[in-house]
Structures are given as structure tokens and as C-alpha cells.
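Lecture 7 notes: from sequence to structure.
We start with the chain below.
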Amino acid sequence: MIPVDEGHTRLVNRFRFRYRWTDLALPLELFTEFGDHVAVPKMLLGIKDRVEGHPTAPLVAQAAEIGVWLAGSLEFAISFILVLVWRRWRRAWIIALLAGFTLLFALYAREPSWIGAGLEVVILVALAWIWHADRQPQPAHEPRLQP
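Predicted C-alpha cells for the same chain:
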């Protein structure tokens, strides 16, 4: 902590990390690198809240937030895979993009978790609707009569 003036300090946080490209744990290290974008700001906000005397979020709220993140990640992965499989690829791309934006919102917006959960419910309904529409038999084209 670095003093700024009599009533304020500044917390400086630095990380130094070196990848070992021949190490078998490299995929785990790269995955945790992605998680740092979410974890570090949340930890710093928690430190700020405790220093300022604000109550910390209950564990149930923190678990719900993590659940929203995991659900959003799963929806995005499913929608991305379905882009490659579905015949109606335009709809699949739209759902994949919406799922990606919803995941980004859930991870980085400082809004209540229920907003992200509501957006994810919309994505789930859209996925189910498109899945059901894809399962319907396609109408046969009627042959044209030639004069």
C-alpha cells in the first residue's frame, strides 16, 4: 500500500508470470489466465468494500454469480458448436452472438447477477425454440407444372 495523503492509500497489485511452453500444465495455466480477468477485479472490489466498511456479499450470492458465469459459458459453448451442426446457421449465429454478449455482460458488467441470469434464460428459450424448429419436418417443394 502506498500512502496518497493523510486519509487515503493506494493498493498496487503486480503479477509476474512466465510460461513454460514445454510444461504439461500449460493448458491449465492458460485457463487460469482467462479466469484472472474476472477474479482479480472481484478480489480488489472485495478489498475495497472491506476497507471502506461495507458488508461483503454473502456466500450464496457469490455462488449464484459463479453459477451464472458457468451457465453463460456452457450456453456459449453449446451455441458455438451448434453453429457448425445446424442447417439453419443464420439463427444459430444470432444465438451464438447473443450468448457471447450475455456471457461478457455476466462476467464484466457490475450489475446484479439476476440480470445476467435473466438474459441467459432468454438465450436458453431461443436455443430450445431453434432446436425444436430444426426438428420439424421440412415441407416438400411442390413440382412446378410446365406449360
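Points to note: The longest helix spans residues 59-85. The chain has two domains: 1-55, 57-136.
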